[in-house]
Amino acid sequence: MTITITAFERSPDRGMGLARDTRVRWALEEVGQPYEVRLVSFAAMKEPAHLKLHPFGKIPTYEEGDLVLFETGSIILHIAEHHPGLLPNDANARARAITWMFAALNTVEPPILELANAKLLESDKPWSKERLPLVADRVRGPLKQLSARLGEADWLDGAFSAGDLMMVHVLQRLKPSGLLNEFPSLAAYVARGEARPAYKRAFAAQLEVNTRKG
Ligand code: GTB
């Protein structure tokens, strides 16, 4: 059955790979599943046709036959559960890998998004200069703990898993801030993720969309 995802017609990052379709593309590349992409504009995302797929009017979405999914956590878990390559066979190891997916989305990503929004949407406010360091410190806390847990390991729990895929993509969002470089082992962890052939294919595919003429 054909898999179709949605992505920005023009990503605000112009193809740096930070928009969330990249993590879904990466998961599909890791498990060797071909997919099609339907590009949507910001306006189309808020139209009824897209809201039927995504009640919050965002990308990405995932369609496969009758199944329609939104939320990258759910989409990547679905991909990982239906195709070998992203979750271990051992039941406990599998549960731990899924736990890392949740940790990426529920613990690490929220303060990173808060920092991105503070920079993007609040920099003109009189209190922005005072608030920014506080927001950045709320990112540093979980990063310090994540770095301690990763230690010298290549991946968070044994072999590369959907947990690492999600964590690496979440951490990438920090790159423009320079904050990731305060944690060299996490910067190296992200670089290991980006060196995977599946990531490179996913990145190239979204870049192609964003550098297309016209
Ligand atoms: N929790 C949802 C998920 O994980 O699927 C979040 C989905 C989401 O926020 N999608 C964003 C979107 O559709 C795109 S990825 N936004 C449009 C809207 O809300 O109108 C967020 C994103 C956007 C831009 C950059 N960037 O330019 O660096 C990075 C990430």
Beta-strand content estimate? 5-15%
Broad shape? globular
Instruction: Please state the CA-atom Rg, rounded to the nearest Å.
Output: 17 Å
Number of strand elements: 4
What letter string, H or E per element, gives the SSE order?
EHEHHEEHHHHHH
- How would you characterize the largest beta sheet? 4 strands, mixed
Helix content: 55-70%
Strand order of the largest sheet: 2-1-3-4
Report on this model:
The chain is built from nine helices and four strands; from the N terminus they run E-H-E-H-H-E-E-H-H-H-H-H-H. Strand 1, helix 1 and strand 2 form a beta-alpha-beta unit. Helix 1 packs antiparallel against helix 7 (162-172). Strands 2-1-3-4 form a four-stranded mixed β-sheet. The chain has helices at 21-30, 42-45, 48-53, 72-82, 91-121, 128-150, 162-172, 184-194, 197-211, and strands spanning 3-8, 36-40, 61-64, 67-70. With 214 residues, it is of the alpha+beta class. The chain is globular. S-(P-nitrobenzyl)glutathione binds next to helix 2. S-(P-nitrobenzyl)glutathione (GTB) binds at residues 11-13, 18-20, 42, 45, 57-59, 71-72.
